[in-house]
Amino acid sequence: MIQTTAVFATTVDGKISAVDRKAHREPDKADQAHVEFQASLADLYLLGAGTLRSEGGTLLIRNPELLAMRAARNQSPQPITCIVSQSLRIPTDLSFFSQPIERWIFTTEASLKAAAGSPLLNLAEVIPVGEQEIDWDYGYAVLAERGIKQVAALGGGSLNADLLKAKKLDMMWVTIWPTLFGGKEAPTAIEGDGYDPKQAPILELLETRQISSELFLQYRIHYRDKSG
Ligand SMILES: NC(=O)c1ccc[n+]([C@@H]2O[C@H](COP(=O)([O-])OP(=O)(O)OC[C@H]3O[C@@H](n4cnc5c(N)ncnc54)[C@H](OP(=O)(O)O)[C@@H]3O)[C@@H](O)[C@H]2O)c1
After folding, report:
1. 179 lines ligand 1 (CB under 6 A)
2. Is the CB of 158 inside a 6 Å radius of any atom of ligand 1?
């Protein structure tokens, strides 16, 4: 059984980045340490191609204690990063491709066929999981076959929405940044088509922590059946 935890941060007005998606935020040590700890528990990260294109790379575990804990659990020093991309339009000069990690890409059969000969195919293991669209049941069967037990879903909002729709997210850790980004075009934590409130997932609050004006909230996700 694979356990998947989404780990993300939003402003109080629900924005996971500003309108300018590449705009840098001031360093936030408490949140960085929290995210690094949660990420260090994972065998594999799922990361949307949009986030990779905005950020250029994946999260590296650097804290020696967390690296020692991974070694004690027989995990590789860094979790595998599995990018999710329909288009396979991922620039090959991103720093991601020189990070000391194992790189996988989930895509579709159709996209893989269209990308024949692309240099991307030499830089990561490209795994088709679905014909025209990502099939998450199949994708998760591939992960299970490869021994993955703990997944951290590191965003962004499109990937989160799709994993929720496929009922693959079990838990969420949400950091509430004490600020407001505003802006209709600024991305939110859950994009996609949205929910009828009667069918929206229900969140059970398991833990809260406060550091200064920042909140860290852990939720278990309960899905409803179609009748809501
Ligand atoms: N605050 C936080 O915690 C946090 C966390 C993560 C990201 N972010 C921010 O969020 C922004 C990115 O948002 P985004 O909406 O672009 O998010 P995203 O989910 O990272 O990227 C969307 C792209 O990922 C691929 N993708 C995702 N799910 C897919 C699926 N089921 N099937 C096929 N392809 C799929 C597609 O790539 P292709 O276009 O290649 O097909 C899609 O265009 C960035 O500004 C990033 O910095 C913030």
Report:
1. no
2. yes
* pLDDT of 159: 98
Ligand 1 pocket: which of 86, 164, 176 to mutate (most atoms <8 Å of CB)?
Answer: 86
For residues 111-131, average pLDDT: 97
Domains of the chain: 3-19+28-222 (3.40.430.10)
What's the gap between Cα 141 and its chain centre? 18
Q: Strand order of the sheet with strand 171-177?
A: 125-128, 103-107, 80-84, 44-48, 150-153, 3-11, 171-177, 214-222, 202-211
Strand partners, 106: 84, 127
User: For residue 85, how far is its CA from the centre of ligand 1 (angstroms)?
Assistant: 9
Pocket mutation for ligand 1, best pick of 90, 158, 164, 174 (most atoms within 8 Å of C-beta): 158
Q: What is the pLDDT of residue 28?
A: 92
> For the whole prediction, is pTM greater than 0.90?
yes
Diameter over CA atoms, the chain: 51
